[in-house]
Request: fold
Amino acid sequence: MSSSSRSGSGARRARRAKRRERSGIAALALAIVGVLLPGVSYLAAGRRRLGTAVTLLSLSLYGAAVYLALARRDDVVTWALNPDILLWMVVGLGVIALYWVAVLVSSYKMLRPMAAGPGARLAGSAVIGLVCFGMASSTALGAQTLMAQRQLVEKVFSGDSSKSQTRPKIKNTKDPWAQLPRLNILLLGADDGAGRQDTRTDSVMIASIDTRTGKTALISLSRNWMRMPFPAGTALHKKFPTGYWDPHGKEDQPNYYLDAMYRLIPAEHRDLIGPSDNPGADVLKLSAGEAMGLKLHYYVQVNLAGFAQLVEALGGITVNINYRVPVGGNDDKKIPASRYLEPGPDRHLNGTDALWFARGRYQVQGADVARQARQRCTVKAIVERATPQNVLANYMDLAKAGENLIRTDIPQTILPAFVTLGQRVKNAQITNIDLNKPKNYPSGSNPKYEAMRKLIQQHLNPTTKPAAPKPTASTPHKPTTPKTPAPDLAEACAYNPEN
Reply:
């Protein structure tokens, strides 16, 4: 080896040795700062080639993350809803964590003063160990969140092998709303708590969403409706051509109520439904859609026994209470309510109270209609509470709650589009379609479904009348009656206590 080479190597070693004359605190600080941009600490230790390579790799990772966040957000959402990709994300997170820990430990060894005593070495190693533990804990939390997301998607949302007789076949999964300019979702509140035999749907609503604007109309169906129709040409229509009821029975037939169909039709007429993961939901999609004149595309079923868990995971909801709402109680058995939710504006409810706000009916005037109105206000409150920040902050609890209480036939392939649509719905108007109970269903024995269909179509597709000609001297101007605006839930759910 030439003398010049030896002198060059010696000079580099001398520079490194000089750098290692810094204090132990400075070495620790440089190593920890190097966690933010791995490679910088190597450069500070005099390892230029290694430092340059690691720094460039780190900058590339940061640049890729920024690019994905700013330019490929839709793709990121898609990946976050794909179970296979989520699994690879967990693996990638582990690899990155190991990379960060290896850089931290090795850079500290290079920067640590050579003359440091045992006490200083022990203290420095302890600090580095704590930082590594913090990084490992953060990585474990991130991996746990990704696995919870993966389990939620796999357990709740149906895949290609799902059996459903009623959901549409989507050709363009990236933009399904081009095929569905109006999306109709059946919302079911299933009560399978103590004292009930099997599952009954105490709450049945339809959310009709304009997928372009996010404007949503809610339709509440009464639980005691009879003669629920089925679409012509189906086996259920052939069995019940005049609707679901017994023409030879009494006027009031509880076993033929809407809230009994989910349980009884699959139990008694399973052969009329065909293959299905949730035959009761498919029955209600067909029947409720025919009754309201709408094609119902998907359903979302919430187990009311676990509804409180969802609200708790969101940190509670805020509603206006206009009259005393009973907690518990049974009119038929003469069992009084255990307590009441007292009237007041902006009342913050925990999970249990939110459930009873949506369900309470003991000695409530017009109990079914009143309960439907409160249920719509509950939906509105949950939509308002589900901000991105709140969802992220409570994601683990929400994912766990979702696994336990939600069933749906929404396929995994269009979940990213639903995320985008959900943001539109949150920022748009939510209205209620009044089906005119006094005129169309004073009782549930024989509802006027055709009249209700017309009301729904008038709300969803208002006709625009041509502009009237300008008045002339011979044609006096006649004032026009302004059209009644659609009832907004913000107004319907406002604080307006009864006198």
Residues 231 and 290 are 6 Å apart (CA to CA). The two ends are 102 Å apart (CA to CA).
